[in-house]
Design brief:
The chain has a 9-stranded antiparallel β-sheet with strand order 1-2-3-4-7-8-11-12-15, with no helix packed on it. Strands 5-6 form a two-stranded antiparallel sheet. It has a two-stranded antiparallel ribbon with strand order 9-10. It is 0% helix and 55% strand. It is mostly beta strands.
């Protein structure tokens, strides 16, 4: 058996960067997002409009940024995989319209901040994401069923935190990083009280060493 599908899409984008001072920049952008559908001719591609507005500070001591983001999915794609409760075909399916919005903070600096041969780099980031369906529809994926307007998108955590701390020398380095991901639902609109429809938040720790 064979099947095919094809798409033609225009993907414009524009970005603006304004230098407020020698160390401070204000930036924004609007871009068209696209992801191709599968080979089935009754599946539409994923289309979105992505907006961002942020401020970034950079100097020899500290680098930091704060960004607001907003994505309007006119056509969201899902994929039938066993891990998400499907039959595992891998086929793409249309998942309605959705909104993803949030903010992200990031900062990086050297805790030593001298001309010493040893440096102590620190990087930390926090992301808040609110992702929800903007219209009601009946999903093609059986575990989802009827999806209501305002239901949270599955497998997207509201809170994520990343911290990396290291010690560097010209011939060796040691880094410790940790990542926290908050609770996520496995079906649209899953509540904390529904057993089996959420994955608890977790942390991952990683320690690495390098010698040159």
């Amino acid at each position: 058996q064979t099947r095919s599908n094809s798409f033609s899409v225009w993907l414009p984008g524009v970005g603006v960067n304004y230098q407020l001072s020698g160390q401070l920049n204000l930036f924004s952008g609007v871009h068209r997002g696209f992801a191709p559908a599968g080979s089935s001719d009754d599946t539409d591609p994923e289309l979105s409009t992505n907006y961002e507005l942020g401020i970034r500070k950079t100097n020899s001591k500290v680098e930091g940024s704060a960004v607001l983001f907003y994505t309007d999915y006119q056509s969201l794609l899902g994929r039938d995989i066993a891990a998400a409760g499907g039959i595992g075909s891998g086929d793409a399916f249309n998942a309605g319209t959705a909104i993803t919005r949030g903010l992200e903070f990031q900062v990086g600096f050297d805790a030593v901040n001298t001309s010493s041969t040893i440096s102590l780099p620190v990087v930390a980031a926090y992301t808040y994401t609110d992702a929800y369906f903007s219209k009601s529809f009946e999903s093609e994926l059986e575990p989802w069923g009827m999806v209501n307007k305002g239901d949270q998108l599955p497998y997207i955590a509201n809170h994520q935190v990343y911290v990396n701390v290291g010690i560097q020398h010209k011939r060796a380095s040691l880094f410790f990083n940790t990542k926290y991901q908050g609770d996520i639902g496995t079906v649209p609109g899953a509540e904390d009280t529904v057993p089996g429809e959420r994955i608890d938040g977790f942390m991952v720790f990683d320690l690495s060493a390098n010698v040159i």
